[in-house]
Design brief:
alpha/beta, binds S-adenosylmethionine, 20 helices, 48% helix, nine-stranded parallel beta sheet, 473 residues
């Protein structure tokens, strides 16, 4: 038997199968124990989070009244920590060359039906200009794993190109990176290149399933993959984003694993994950999601989001365009703080006139333009934010977390959201979006707590009208 130890650096000790199984048994035994459920909800109200056992009890509980309490609390915690801001980003696919054999991903090496493509620096430039012209300021770069075609030097060149492009009033101010698990040395290089968050999905925390789903290639190594965030932190990256690809294995197992991973990072590095992503397996070339028999209903998916929100209140939550507008609306309400918009999941998909599908990583379920997504968010009462200030001001890792935990982050985030939204309205919005946005900004200025900050924001909004850009607190 392998002993559970959140402080260990060995994958199977901090993501411990025995502990997860014991957690699920505990959750089953207590899901109708309403006294305990109440106690856990009361603890969650302190906004200091829950451990994987407590959160698993709430996830298992099917008492309707209690579920409503959990949802209401998730919504309230989200409001308290993130206000009504939603941070916007877009994925940028650099290359679909891949040497792995992931059974759920169309980029797997044996797939001969998709053309393989890797962007040249000239093509990266075209993609970035197209993204800037939509209004994006924050990207997540994506690539398959291929040491020959996509070595770290290629990724670093792309990051350099992305940051160097200043087209009209556009700029990409934060590049997050979603590439395969790598070495401490390579993480250090990514850090030096000025990346924001390093994102790596665990796919599944269940070791046996993991090995089955990744039969070939370097990704087959469960320990190397699971320990990647520790190496990233050792390499100096202090904002890391974790996630599970829901649908591959049993969601309750994954949920407990995800929280144990967060607890491990907090225990070892003093800072939990910056973000948690909740992707679900989607149809893609060569991939039929029904081949994986662990798909979960939209209702359960939303419940997972609500339970994550109250278990790790200070961790951002990301939802992509894998989900439909309807699911996105519900899950945003329950806790998501960051969404993609206007996304293309194909290599070279932004600059192409005709939308190419043949290199897509998965089918997108929300096909609206960024302007349409921004418009929709504002109509639903949210402030779409293009802010990238925290990381550029050095508010990362434990500095970010301590500000976030004390609620201080709102004094910067709210005004920054308004100023970056104003930039979007001036440079990229349709007339209708502009009109709604201007009204929203006017209304939301009143929600800035400090008079002095209010005054500065008003001055800066005028400056933005007059062509100046990139103000931040
Ligand atoms: N190749 C890198 C790696 O191995 O981690 C990461 C980049 S990959 C382009 C990004 C993520 O897309 C994967 O981690 C996986 O969770 C997700 N993905 C792959 N196939 C998918 C599918 N059919 N539906 C939904 N998401 C998928």
């Amino acid at each position: 038997m392998i002993k559970y130890d959140p402080k260990s650096l060995v994958a199977e000790e901090f993501i411990n199968d025995e502990e997860i199984k014991a957690t699920l048994e505990y959750a089953d035994a207590n899901k109708d124990n309403l006294e305990l459920v109440d106690k856990i909800i009361e603890k969650a109200k302190e906004r200091k989070g829950l451990n994987h056992r407590e959160a698993s009890v709430l996830l298992a509980c099917d008492n309707e009244e209690k579920i409503k309490e959990i949802y209401d609390l998730a919504e309230q915690i989200k409001k308290d920590f993130y206000g009504n801001r939603i941070v916007m980003f877009a994925p940028l696919y650099l290359s679909n060359y891949c040497v792995n054999g992931c059974l759920y991903c169309p980029y797997h090496q044996k797939n001969k039906t998709i053309p393989r493509k890797k962007l040249t620096q000239e093509e990266v430039k075209k993609e970035v200009i197209a993204l800037q012209d939509m209004g994006h300021k924050r990207l997540a770069i994506e690539a398959g794993e291929d040491p020959v075609n996509n070595p770290i030097e290629y990724i670093l060149d792309c990051i350099k190109t992305i940051y160097s492009i200043k087209h009209k009033n556009g700029a990409i101010r934060r590049v997050n990176v979603n590439i395969a698990a790598t070495t401490v040395e390579n993480y250090r290089k990514l850090k030096e290149a000025g990346i924001g968050t390093y994102i790596l999905f665990q796919e599944t925390y269940h070791k046996e399933s993991y090995e089955y789903l990744h039969p070939t290639g370097p990704k087959h190594n469960y320990a190397y993959h699971t320990e990647a965030m520790d190496r990233a932190m050792e390499g100096g990256i202090d904002d890391v984003g974790i996630g599970v690809l829901f649908g591959l294995d049993k969601y309750r197992y994954e949920f407990a694993g995800l929280l144990m991973h967060a607890e491990h990072l907090e225990a070892v590095h003093g800072v939990g994950p910056h973000t948690i992503s909740v992707p679900r397996v989607k149809h893609a070339d060569d991939i039929d999601p029904t081949d994986f028999d662990n798909s979960l209903s939209d209702e359960m998916f939303c419940k997972i989001a609500a339970c994550i929100r109250i278990a790790v209140p200070y961790t951002g939550m990301i939802i992509s365009t894998r989900e439909t507008p309807k699911v996105r609306e519900e899950i945003i309400r329950l806790g998501v703080s960051q969404i993609s918009g206007g996304s293309r999941t194909s290599v070279g998909g932004y600059a192409e006139e005709e939308r190419p599908h043949d290199t897509e990583q998965f089918d997108v379920s929300d096909n609206r333009t960024l302007d349409e997504v921004v418009n929709w968010l504002m109509r639903a009462g949210y402030i779409p934010s293009f802010c990238t200030a925290c990381y550029r001001e050095g508010r990362t890792g434990d500095r970010f977390m301590s500000l976030c935990k004390s609620g201080q982050i709102q004094n910067c985030c709210h005004p920054n959201a308004l100023m970056t939204l104003k930039e979007f309205l001036m440079d990229y919005a349709s007339p209708d979006t502009k009109k709604i946005g201007e009204e929203l900004i006017e209304k939301e200025i009143d929600n800035i707590g400090k008079e002095k900050v209010k005054e500065i924001v008003r001055e800066r909004l005028v400056k933005i009208e007059n062509g100046e850009r990139d103000f931040r607190f």
